[in-house]
Amino acid sequence: MTAIVGILNKHAIAIAADSAATVFGNNNSHKIFNKSTKIFTLSKHHPVGVMIHNAGSFLSTPWETIIKVYRKNLKDKSFPTLKDYQEDFITFLHKKNFYSDEATQKTFLYFLFNAVVKSLTEKALMNQTAILADPTPENKAAAIALIDNEFEIFLRQIRSNSEICSEFVDLTLVDFNSFTHNEFSFIIKEFFTNNGLVATPGLIVKIQETLYLYTRIKEEWVNHSGLVFVGFGEDEIYPSLIPVKISLALGTRLRYFIKTNEEIHISNEKQSAISPFGQIDVIHTILTGVDNSLETTFIENLGVTLEKYNQAIIGLVNGSPELMAQINAVDIPTLVEEYKTKIYEAKQVSYINPLYNALDSLSKEDLAEMAESLIYLTYLKRRITFAEESVGGPVDVAIISKGDGFIWTKRKLYFKPELNQYFFDNYLK
Prior knowledge:
48% of the residues lie in helices and 19% in strands. The chain is built from 14 helices and 15 strands. Strands 5, 6, 9, 10, 11 and 12 form a 6-stranded antiparallel sheet that branches. α3 (102-124) crosses α5. The mean pLDDT is 91.
């Protein structure tokens, strides 16, 4: 797992990342290593960098390799904006055929199909122990009906509420089914045939459409990679941050998207920002003054308490039907929403606004110290509790400014600098 953060103001952007990487083996086993590198210079000559979170490889090729090959090809070329660097990197991936072949692409598509179908079938058959324990023809038919209904519900959601990745807009269902025919057959065999179930023609059509739509939409899944581009374009005097989600490829199409609401472009109107990725629970607590899950629990419990209070009052006035009806008509969900609004306003006034007001004028050194501290505190919480230490290892920290470029303030190296002077002599060649 990962914890990375970018902190920006008009002076610079400070970035920090932990070094933990989780490697999965057979039978859901996994191991955590603490030597992973997640921050890279995107150019050896210009003030731009990139951070990685979630999957450290793309279609089996390490991002470190891809980024360093891109950097070598870029040489001393620059672009007017950070957005141009990000778009050029995507173009580079296309030119290199995504460092993959068709067989690898289809393997990762199969992983995606498996995750989607498994999730929906398990949800459909949740708590259906009687059907699963007695596989009669009637129960098998009932199981198929439940699965069919779950896919129908999911289809209604993604048909109407989902944005499409830009390179998949013109992908037709016919072309999609042609490319993924074998992988789809494997899925039907794994989830239905091997379990003694016969998927109806209608259900097969729904599964095909579900996988087609889900592959096209702007949705993260477990094997996606997050690339966070940071720094300055040639024509920019303030830093920017652009997060890109990349997961797989289909032929010549790359499944990627940018959450525009997560982009940051420092300006006179927006003078500072803190942007965490990966495991952000501790950072969120520090920035807002309350743990997100705890706040959710408070709000849910308030709703439950108000409902109980309402019923208790009704019980005391059971002699007056008119009064009971009036009490029962109290709009508790609206009261809870008003409470949430008040909590949000209190957080803004007491925690968020004062923090950002101070952040506007922090020096480069203070930005770097803050970025490192946020990552370290995330690691510390994992270490002193019974949570898995999925954030850990040395914290790498860098500062990117318009005048000084990309400057490391803390960086782990896998070699001893004094024994490898030729590396530094040749770095800019």
